[in-house]
Known about the structure:
The protein is of the alpha+beta class. It folds into two domains: 2-313, Electron Transport, Fmn-binding Protein, Chain A (Pnp Oxidase, Chain A, Roll); 335-437, UbiD C-terminal domain-like, CATH 3.40.1670. It is 25% helix and 27% strand. It is built from 13 helices and 28 strands. The strands form seven sheets. Strands 9, 10, 11, 12, 13, 14, 15, 18, 19 and 22 form a ten-stranded antiparallel β-sheet that branches. The protein has a five-stranded mixed β-sheet with strand order 24-25-26-28-27, sandwiched between helices. It has a four-stranded mixed β-sheet with strand order 3-5-7-23, with helices on one face. A hairpin with an 8-residue loop joins strand 24 (338-342) and strand 25 (351-356). The longest helix has 22 residues, at 313-334. The radius of gyration is 24 Å and the shape is globular. The two termini are 46 Å apart.
Amino acid sequence: MSAANGVIDASAGLAVWLESLGGQVLRVEEPLAVEYEVTALQHALDRAGRYPPVWVRKPQLADGGIAAFSLATNLTASRRLVCAALGLGDSRRAAAWWAERQQQRAAPVTVPAEQAPVRSMVLEGGEADLRRLPATVQHQGNPGPYLTAAHATTVDPESGIDNSAIQRCWIKEARRMTWFPYPNSHNARNMRAWHGRGEPCPVALWVGHHPAVSVAAQVKLGHPESHWPAAGGLLGGPLRLTPSLHFGDRLKVPADAEFVIEGLAHPGATGADGPFAEYTGFLGPAVDAPICEVLSISHRPHAVLHDCGSGLADNLVPDNIAMEGRLYSLAKAVSPRLLNVHVPADGRRFLALLQFDGAPPGEVRDALAAALAWRRVKTAVAVDADIDLFDARQVNWALATRFQWDRDLIRVDGLSTSLLDPSLEPGRKTASKAGLDATLRVGRGVPPVAHPDAAALARAEALLSRLADSAAMDAWPAC
Ligand SMILES: Cc1cc2nc3c(=O)[nH]c(=O)nc-3n(C[C@H](O)[C@H](O)[C@H](O)COP(=O)(O)O)c2cc1C
């Protein structure tokens, strides 16, 4: 499978990919409890501003035993790592790259089960026990172990067209778990269509794959529209699929996944799910979710369970990159002078930053209005080409010095939004949104920027590198 800047070999499995990163992976060789400890490590890394993938070699289950499978988390916490996995060298150019790639399609190839690594081991009946998986209990207030990076694949019964989305599952019993597709998600729509016929909904949950596949399979599409060619388009080559064990060609699954869990969601079978951490950083309330009755678990020989830190960068980064691509397409359509878009993880998908190169009057506001129309974006900020979108200090500087509320603000009320935004009062279904134009326009007569002397700056940087070992260098962080 080829990608823009090299070759992505997505067939080798997560263990091989993690090994290929060598010392850039945080390998934890001592036992680490799946209950709280794995996620606490992610929080500790986040507080230290560090985002390596974490490979927990001996996950400790709730009964004290060591799981037969290792666990990998934080695989998508670093923007740079996600982009590198996708074959994109410059992580600052992801918006334009994604906007272009999301238009492309590459049809998948289907291989027989005998050639599918994920079908190497098949567990059915009493052997299929979800409780043997190192599923994590992530945060205080969570009710039990969750699969947090499971891609649920369903098909629309009318057209037979597939849909895939990461959707959490709370493991309740050996072969019983809730599976939570948001009510307006395409998987929920497919499920309701099966139930409308009085039939159970077949569902395959595939967990763990090369991170590029995991990210690409989540591309946002219309309904019904297959995710497989769209994932192939983003990856730069076809994805390998195989017929599922129970549903055959009617429901195909990625041949190179780590695990595939197949099951049925019966009409009327629901159970409590949550509270669970959301991308907002808050715990979402318990909801009613479909129950998935598990028929089988198949896996690779040394399968690695992919876990995703909910509410952490791990959860935010991939979807935010996809948002950048979508916003770039929307805003570029009305603003040829748009340079770049960034959706910073700490803005939680509610904040978008747009950069322009001297756009004429009206154009920046057009682009801001286009960005505000996209789903969760609540605040869109426009800056000039000299402002680094990836440096919050520079964006703050632009807002502080290039913006007037009476002149540079657009406010639009009553737009659609995510109901997970905790600032919405109960019952409210729309958001009040704002665009802030912090670009300078010609003729404003702004003073020149205060720059240091270039030669003196080069000498100062050389001096600092010679003094790098001085205790003073680390003694006084900004706060
Ligand atoms: C880490 C992560 C966890 C997610 N958890 C859920 C979830 O539990 N339920 C859900 O419906 N969507 C979840 N999503 C979003 C889905 O992947 C998907 O975007 C959404 O279900 C809409 O899917 P659709 O475009 O097929 O309608 C999650 C996304 C990520 C990146």
